[in-house]
Amino acid sequence: MEVKSTALITEGNLDQNGLIHTMANIKSQKKRILTNEKRRKANVTVRTTMRSAVKAVEAAIAVKDHEAAVEAYNVANKRLDKAVSKGIVHKNFAARNKSRLSKQINALQN
Q1: Cβ distance 84 to 90 under 8 Å?
Q2: CA–CA distance, 97 with 45 (Å, rounded to integer)
Q3: Quick check: pTM over 0.85?
Q4: Which value, to the nearest 10 degrees, does the dihedral of the CA atoms of residues 21, 27, 32, 35 take?
Q5: Which one, out of 47, 82, 99, 108, has a CA that is 20 to 30 A from the CA of 41?
């Protein structure tokens, strides 16, 4: 890391990745930072559960268990819709995933 000005870069201004991080001075911005972090954590939870549900469907498809795949697909469908309603993923992303998984499940029946 090249240091241009030692006045800006002190150990307190560096985050855990070694990047420069300055704290806000304005009260409303300090509140906004806290709110954003809270929302980010909530979004991570929803995104993680969505991805886990999709992986569960893919795992059931991999072992060619149609019944388990259908049950897992219903859960994944709900998780994808929830992520769309919360604005975490785009509706086309969810639609593409649902379509892809349902095609794979239907191929298991044959």
Answers
A1: yes
A2: 19
A3: no
A4: 100
A5: 99
CATH no., domain 28-109: 1.20.58.110
Q: Which of 99, 44, 110 is nearest to 76 (CA)?
A: 99
CA angle 90–41–19, rounded 5-degree value: 100
Q: Which amino acid is at 77?
A: N
- Looking at the DSSP assignment, which residues form a beta bridge with residue 14? 20
Map tokens 């409303």 to a residue: 28
Main-chain dihedrals φ then ψ at residue 42, nearest 5 degrees: -65, -40
Both tokens assigned to 48? 């993680």
Bridge-partner residues for 20, per DSSP? Answer: 14
Q: Which residue shows structure tokens 């559960």?
A: 49
Tokens of 94: 């969810």
Residue found under tokens 């201004």:
13
pLDDT at residue 13, as a whole number: 58
Of 46, 40, 57, which is closest to residue 98 (Cα–Cα)?
57
109, 105, 99, 102: which is closest to 62 by C-alpha?
A: 105
